[in-house]
Write a structure and sequence with these properties.
single chain; 584 residues; mainly alpha; 32 helices; 0% strand; globular
Length: 584
């Protein structure tokens, strides 16, 4: 009967398992349930497989529990299910098992815990202990060794992970399981790419892009997803776009839901980097809503939402989102995300002239970057920290960090880090009032950011270059500043465009009245439209004035015209009325 059951469809096997369980036939129930789980895995139905395996692992005998726990964790690693690690913890607590079996289950538990917010170090400790317990099971131990080699999360120094990287290379040649060999190879390639090793991309391109088994296809999907993340932080954004599209397809086809969630996070961050902001906040919220238990995805989407809020001048919202991205707690998240979130937070504090808070955020992030030792990940932090430190007259800290970063990215394949170094040095030069030299460095940084492309950062560097030339009295500066303002407008960065227009007005080089003088009748003028949109977002007059660089009195006049033209009874009525108004 058992042999015949092997050929039944998965749903039929599940039904047989249910009947056997109801009849009290425990051994048959276990057999059918495990076979049904295997069938579900082959079909990509990971949720059903996990439900079946969890039911039998809790009641498995000593000979089977380790094997079933490994099978459960292998499936669970494709999709995050918090209840799986609770099941494994209970098995470890309740069952007196041999060390090797304990090690197998402890390894499975640790590999899941490292994904749970706040339990990273507990998970790594479980894996390290499991590796020691699995000395006579090298292929299982290799999985733990490989996990400990991954440096992305927490403040454990890169040098510690490198010890495990060497052990992973040593054990690789002795592995016979093709899935495990592919896992170690893929993680080695992605990790090398993350730390700026240019040979990683060549090795990836030489790898086969097909695999015979479902398990190997899952590992290929993981590789594409992890490599997309690595290439995005290095600044190879065109490569990232290709990896994201293909990685999403592969992860979906293989039923690898956890990698799919991760690459969706990379996808929205890539759109943020590249200035593709239309509808991005909604798309990012959707990703986070679908993966509420995945700490890494919550943090990455919080970074994007925080960055978008900061551009809009919604600083309270930005601070909340950046806190969710662990900007204040670098030990609790993926370090590239944490350092980037810290850089945005520093900018928020500087925008409100809170230099002390900016320096406090910079101190936490700079310390994290130094402790981690992967300098490629500090790219966004460098110009932000340099700005905070120079505005606080902490010249030694500013100079030391920028030059430490420069040494850390030598010979690294990381164009974003190169652009950031130009930007950091430009900030230092500008702070010393060497305006023309700083302008040249800002232009170099702008070109580097534009090449990636990261248009918002490029526009910021163009603005800084133009303002340096204005300080120096050099001709052509107002035209360059107007170009920066136009770039901001195209991105939807209204507040930044307003800042540029404010400076241009001070120099008599810009007047919005060219269009404003024409009669708009009952239609909103472009400026009134901006005010209306900010009213619809719930902004106060003071916030609107700050965001558009207008006087409070001017904002009052615009608000009155908006209410009259829209027929709105109150400020809160604007959001309902605004969509029916045609854009000018």
């Amino acid at each position: 009967m058992h042999t015949k059951a092997m050929h039944l469809p998965g749903q039929s096997l599940s039904l047989l398992a249910a009947h056997a369980h109801a009849a009290g036939c425990v051994e048959e129930w276990r057999q059918y349930a495990e076979e049904a789980a295997d069938e579900a895995v082959a079909q990509g139905d990971t949720a059903r497989a996990i439900d079946l395996l969890q039911a039998i692992v809790a009641k498995a005998d000593e000979d089977a529990v380790g094997r079933l726990a490994k099978k459960l964790s292998d499936v669970a690693l494709r999709v995050f299910r918090p209840d799986v690690h609770l099941t494994l913890e209970k098995v470890l607590e309740d069952r007196p098992l041999p060390p090797a079996v304990h090690g197998t289950i402890r390894l499975a538990l640790g590999m899941l815990l490292v994904r749970v917010a706040g339990r990273l170090e507990q998970g790594r400790a479980a894996v390290e202990r499991a590796v020691a317990e699995l000395a006579d099971r090298p292929e299982l131990a290799a999985r733990g060794i490989n996990l400990l080699a991954l440096p992305f999360d927490g403040l454990t120094p890169l040098s510690w992970h490198e010890q495990w990287m060497r052990r992973a290379r040593e054990v690789h040649s002795g592995l016979t399981d093709p899935e495990l060999r592919l896992t170690l190879t893929g993680d080695r390639v992605a990790t090398a790419s993350h730390i700026g090793d240019g040979s990683a991309w060549a090795e990836f391109e030489a790898m086969p892009d097909t695999a015979p088994s479902v398990a190997e296809r899952v590992q290929l999907a993981r590789l594409w997803c992890n490599l997309a993340d690595a290439q995005s932080w290095s600044g190879h954004l065109d490569r990232t776009e290709r990896l994201v599209a293909e990685g999403l397809r592969r992860a979906s086809e293989a039923g690898a839901l956890y990698p799919k969630g991760l690459i969706e996070g990379t996808e929205v961050r890539l759109a943020w980097f590249r200035g593709k902001w239309d509808g991005l906040a909604e798309a990012t919220e959707d990703v986070r809503t679908r993966h509420p238990a995945l700490g890494a995805i919550v943090m990455e989407t919080s970074l994007v939402l925080g960055g978008l809020a900061a551009v809009r001048g919604e600083f309270a919202a930005a601070r909340r989102h950046l806190a969710d991205a662990s900007a204040h707690r670098p030990g609790e998240g993926p370090i590239p995300v944490v350092l980037c979130a810290a850089s945005v937070l520093i900018g928020v504090h500087l925008s409100t002239d809170d230099v002390a808070a900016a320096c406090e955020a910079a101190d936490v992030a700079v310390d994290a970057a130094r402790r981690k030792g992967v300098w490629v990940w500090a790219a966004s932090l460098v110009p932000a920290a340099a700005e905070a430190y120079t505005r606080a007259d902490r010249w030694h800290d500013a100079d030391a960090f920028v030059e430490e970063f420069a040494r850390g990215i030598e010979d690294r394949d990381a164009p974003l880090a190169v652009a950031a170094l130009h930007a950091g040095r430009a900030v230092l030069t500008s702070a010393r009032a060497k305006h023309l030299a700083a302008a040249t460095l800002f232009d170099t940084a702008a070109d580097a950011y534009a090449e990636l492309p990261m248009p918002y950062l490029a526009a910021g560097m163009r603005e800084r270059a133009a303002r340096c030339r204005l300080e120096a009295g050099q001709g052509g500066a107002t035209a360059a500043l107007s170009e920066a303002a136009a770039a901001y407008v195209q991105l939807g960065a209204t507040r930044d465009a307003g800042r540029c227009h404010h400076v241009l007005r001070e120099h008599g080089a810009w007047a919005p009245s060219q269009r404003g003088r024409r009669g708009y009748g009952r239609e909103l003028s472009p400026r009134e439209r901006e005010v209306a949109e900010m009213l619809a977002e719930g902004r106060t007059n003071r916030q609107i004035a700050d965001g558009l660089f207008l006087s409070p009195r001017t904002v009052e006049q615009h608000v009155a015209k908006v209410l009259r033209k829209l027929g709105a009874r109150s400020r809160t009525d604007v959001a309902r009325k605004l969509p029916s108004v045609p854009s000018p």
